[in-house]
């Protein structure tokens, strides 16, 4: 199969014209994602997760595949900026595996996108404790902590948000999103020197990234206010 997304998309479309089934739709969805056609990808995954039961007869892993497609659909809707559609897909995926942090994070992000920050915090539930002897850290834990820190900030619970940002950075000390968020929270708590230090780190780590652009904006706002210097 060609490596370039546009050729993959073309091949998948041709495959569908000649009777390609779920694999062809999956291939097309992946190509749409790579090309930035997030809504098209989400609709492909939505169709895949809604295949009637009689068409899946004999497929032992059908339920697992459906949950996977719903998860991918939720992610695509988030990229498309449609929080409500992402919420519906995330809830569908969570019916299969309600304890999985990656799915809870998708739901929390979809709710926060709809400005339901309290709902986002609730969707995450109790986060796993890092550093438990003999246990592994969930790969989604840092992202969940950063998301919850931002939600707490939106709710005016800055100390709680700062605690989450600190925990995320204890796990991954160069995490750009966590540094950016901690800087914002520190500024909210009038800890201006600490905020500037975090934002300077963001700029140093990824000078051309979007987070660095935001950090420079935040520093410019701080510089313009004599009470914050």
Reconstruct the topology from this structure.
Elements lengths: L4 H13 L4 H13 L3 H12 L12 H19 L2 H14 L4 H13 L3 H8 L16 H14 L3 H14 L4 H13 L3 H14 L4 H15 L5
β-strand amount: under 5%
Structural class: mainly alpha
Distance between the termini: 57 Å
Helix content: over 70%
Give the low-confidence spans: none
**Shape field:** globular
Briefly characterize the structure.
This protein has about 230 residues and is an all-alpha fold.
Features:
229 residues; mainly alpha; 12 helices
Describe the 3D structure.
There is one protein chain. The protein is mainly alpha-helical and 229 residues long. 71% of the residues lie in helices and 0% in strands. It has helices at residues 5-17, 22-34, 38-49, 62-80, 83-96, 101-113, 117-124, 141-154, 158-171, 176-188, 192-205, 210-224. It is globular and about 60 Å long. This is Tetratricopeptide repeat protein. Keywords: TPR repeat. InterPro entries: TPR-like_helical_dom_sf (IPR011990), TPR_rpt (IPR019734). TPR repeats lie at residues 176-209. It comes from Asaia siamensis.
């Amino acid at each position: 199969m060609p490596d370039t997304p546009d050729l993959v998309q073309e091949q998948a479309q041709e495959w569908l014209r000649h009777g390609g089934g779920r694999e062809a739709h999956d291939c097309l969805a992946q190509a749409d994602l790579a090309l930035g056609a997030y809504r098209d990808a989400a609709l492909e995954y939505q169709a895949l997760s809604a295949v009637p039961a009689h068409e899946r007869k004999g497929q032992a892993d059908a339920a697992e595949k459906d949950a996977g497609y719903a998860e991918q659909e939720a992610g695509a809707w988030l990229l498309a900026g449609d929080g409500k559609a992402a919420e519906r897909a995330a809830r569908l995926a969570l019916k299969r595996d309600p304890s999985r942090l990656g799915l809870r994070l998708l739901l929390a992000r979809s709710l926060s996108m709809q400005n339901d920050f309290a709902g986002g915090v609730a969707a995450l539930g109790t986060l796993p404790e890092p550093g438990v002897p003999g246990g592994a850290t969930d790969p989604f834990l840092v992202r969940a902590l950063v998301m919850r820190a931002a939600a707490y900030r939106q709710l005016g619970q800055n100390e709680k948000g700062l605690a989450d940002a600190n925990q995320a950075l204890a796990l991954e000390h160069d995490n750009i999103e966590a540094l950016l968020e901690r800087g914002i929270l520190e500024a909210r708590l009038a800890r201006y020197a600490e905020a500037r230090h975090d934002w300077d780190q963001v700029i140093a780590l990824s000078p051309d990234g979007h987070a660095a652009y935001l950090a420079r904006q935040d520093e410019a706002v701080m510089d313009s206010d004599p009470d914050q210097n």
